[in-house]
């Protein structure tokens, strides 16, 4: 066995926070509320003195009100109407709004639905004006919204690909730009608080929120999430800013069943190595808020867990901002998890666990219950003060006290040429060419093409859930200017006859065409309404592919879907396969451009696409998966049609000269790595180089390999570029034990890049 060295301790001791502060006690449970309040005070004395003086004037009702977020629809006078353009108009019951604010002094309003910029500004202004008129101490409300892939609730806004696609670009600039342009377009409208990014790891391939993640790899999610936070929060439009919300902490994306909001069994070693790092990185990048997971871990709902919401999130990862619940999740401690007898007990558990704000969102019962709990002495008022100070600090940091109303110049930063280009480029780099038999693609100048499939002429199929509505399934809400795949093909191939076929005429049109393009996958869904019990592609779509293959014409399969739907050996029988995921409003153009060759695909899979539904294996699976008898079974060995990191181009890249600065290093050394990549093809292209490390022997069974670094560059035909990677043992060769203690162990490691490998030794003593 190797010598194990504890390099630094994450849990129950020295805690590294974003500001590298040291806690007052070695045991977080010994920290008093007063110590936490003192510790979280920032260096901005003017702001902190303002918060202190405000808190002294606030009644208990006002304080509790700040901890409550109500859905704006709670104040609707009638159901929102929709005009001919698909834009919704909200009628607000101002009398009800005034009564609720006067009585409960609510601190936040949750917004949603598709509106024009003018309508968003109007609605936000009305809510804020009524609030400021009735707020005892003039505290503005903070508006929260789910702009999770661009401004997806703004009628004229810029909608990017979903995060799964952004991950597939392996180009962090797109995560940054998605955050940046979301802030530019939304912040001036009074959208202060954006519930993104999603930092779960896409291990469960049937999970309906998989497309909201950056993929199945921890390092990829860590880099992309941190860059999104930076792009969103560092982008200011004058005095207007937005707060990011890292979600959903923690373990939400790995439910045992694959169904949304259900229980996960997670060992603590896995938690620390794979699930918390993306959150820690986003916290270090300045994420102002975090949303708690709706699920349960090892039988304990996260919303009721002091361990996860305080010990891990705050005392180990260093988070000091606002922690909000997900939708109705305090209520669900009683109604879904059944760990409390009633909502009042649920409130007690959640607040004592560390929740700062509750997404109520249809009831004021939370306020009544929490006030009662304080008056009964079960929850000290100082615990309420801790959360309220965090909320008031957030509002100060965003400048809401100075600028509570929308900007007068919000139109200036919406749907600019730069924003459209960023979304187009992101779409173009997010679509994976999985198969290209006999170089069928690009198509060049065919005489005739037949297009068919459930998503061939669908706008919503390109965007999925959380687009213009929660489920994203109302085609009427999508912009008139947006192109479906069929629309885009007609423009792209202007000298080609493009036929949009139905099932009854497929054989005829295929017979007179040069190729059949089948655009299939899934219809939109979001959250639990996307739960499935069968991962196979719908049977009618499978029959469609079978029919197309039987015509003996080249078949090009385009998959528009939020998670991998099983196609099995149909992959082998199609001539070309494209995983397009959910590329957004410019996805049709990007797909057409790839098919024509105008765009050279450069994306790589951000998940492992399973071959059959029984093979839900990620690329970094454990060593035991293919040991022994499993390795003798060819059927088991074929577990994927597209492993994480795979993807084709219309040019070819050759890897050579993998160089290591040394073959043996100590824990205090750095190891310099480099590799040369040559574009050996006839056209320019981008290549993302992925660096993996494999720990050959560990005290804990180690993954077969793990992504540790990636870089994407542009190469001209014949050009050679050098890619480099510096290994810091502390960052790249250590891993946590089940208590969160980081360990480095002497022994051999492999570097894997492209088709090359090299071996080196870490000398730990």
Short description:
It contains 24 helices and 32 strands.
How many extended strands? Answer: 32
Which regions are unreliable across 5 or more consecutive residues at pLDDT < 50?
1-29
Estimate what percentage of residues fall within beta strands.
Answer: 15-25%
Strand order of the largest sheet: 15-20-19-18-16-17
Terminus-to-terminus distance: 14 Å
Secondary-structure class: alpha/beta
Q: Gyration radius, to the nearest Å?
A: 26 Å
Q: What profile does the largest beta sheet have?
A: 6 strands, mixed
What percentage of residues falls in helices of 4 or more residues? 25-40%
Average pLDDT reading: 94
Shape: globular
How many helical elements?
24
What can you tell me about this protein's structure?
The chain has 24 helices and 32 strands. It has 765 residues and is of the alpha/beta class. Strand 19, helix 21 (570-573) and strand 20 form a beta-alpha-beta unit. It is globular, with a radius of gyration of 26 Å. Residues 1-29 have low confidence and may be disordered.
